[in-house]
Amino acid sequence: MQDSFLHKGKRKQLIAYLRRAGISDEKVLTAMNEVPRHLFIESIFEDFAYEDRAFPIAAQQTISHPSTVAEQTELLALKEGEKVLEIGTGCGYQTAVLVAMKTLVFTVERQKDLFDFSRKKLSELHLKPRFQSFGDGFAGLPTFAPFDKILVTCGAEELPVELLKQLRIGGKMVIPLGAQDQQVLYRFTKISATEIEKEAFGIYKFVPMLNNTQ
After folding, report:
1. Catalytic site residue 123?
2. Which residue among the candidates 4, 24, 43, 64 is catalytic per the annotation?
């Protein structure tokens, strides 16, 4: 698949839709307008790639709705050059958006098929994260901590404390929490070593966050 004028036109329509849906961070919208989402999914879904839909990818996982990607990214309040830890690389689309926003992305994926696919695809598009790891997301990447922002793209039943430890004072973590049938999207801001501010942003359905590697 190529990134044609038709694809680019559909992306502009998607960005207009996201604006109407309430996404106001122009850096997020610009990045999503640059990243060719159709290249991260199966070719049979290509015609629908810029609709606000989720699609199946390898390892029984999904690529999130564009509106979900936009909201999660906006909630991080990213600045150029910030260190971002992403838990759940998946097919690499969310990673690509973060890289396009000129952040330093450290990303972890537990599914080997997805790790291999995303590494190849991101390299082809010249949207390379600072570090890409095949590993357990619950462990994070303590070697590279602290991080300015942490984004978890899968739903955890309980807050992963180890990830909070890797967040700098003043940093933010966006994560869906709750049972597998539905989760609440939260933003945690680390006020001090012992104080965390929690905000809720509605109910979503994400694939579950799992231990170890596959």
Report:
1. no
2. 64
